[in-house]
Amino acid sequence: MCGITGWTDTERDLTAPEHRATAAAMTATMACRGPDADGVWTSAHAVLGHRRLSIIDLDGGRQPMTDTEHDPDVVLTYSGEVYNFAELRAELAARGHRFRTRSDTEVVLRAYLEWGADLAPRLNGMYAFAIWDTRSRELLLVRDRLGVKPLYYHVHPGGVLFGSEPKAVLANPLFQAALDDSGIAELFALPTAPTPGHAVYAGLRQVRAGHVVRADARGVTESAYWRPPALAHTDDLDTTAAHVRELLRDTVTRQLVADVPLGSLLSGGVDSSAVSALAAEALGRDGAKLDTYSVDFPGADTGFRRTAWHDSRDEPYARAVAAHLGTRHTTIVVDPDDVRRHEERVLRARDLPGWGEMDVSLHLLFAHVRRHSTVALSGESADEVFGGYPYFRDPAALGHDGFPWLYDRDTPASLLRPEVRERVRPAEYARARYEEALAEVPRLPGEQGADVRVREVSYLALTRWLPALLDRKDRMSMATGLEVRVPFCDHRLVEYVWNVPWSLRFAGGEEKHLLRRAVADLLPAEVVHRRKSAFPANPDPGYAAALRERVADLLADRDAPVFDLVDRAAVTALVEAGRPLPSPRAASSATAGLGYLLGVDAWLRAYHVRVG
Question: Would 264 disulfide with which of 36, 65, 214, 377, CB 3.0-4.6 Å?
Answer without folding.
Answer: 377
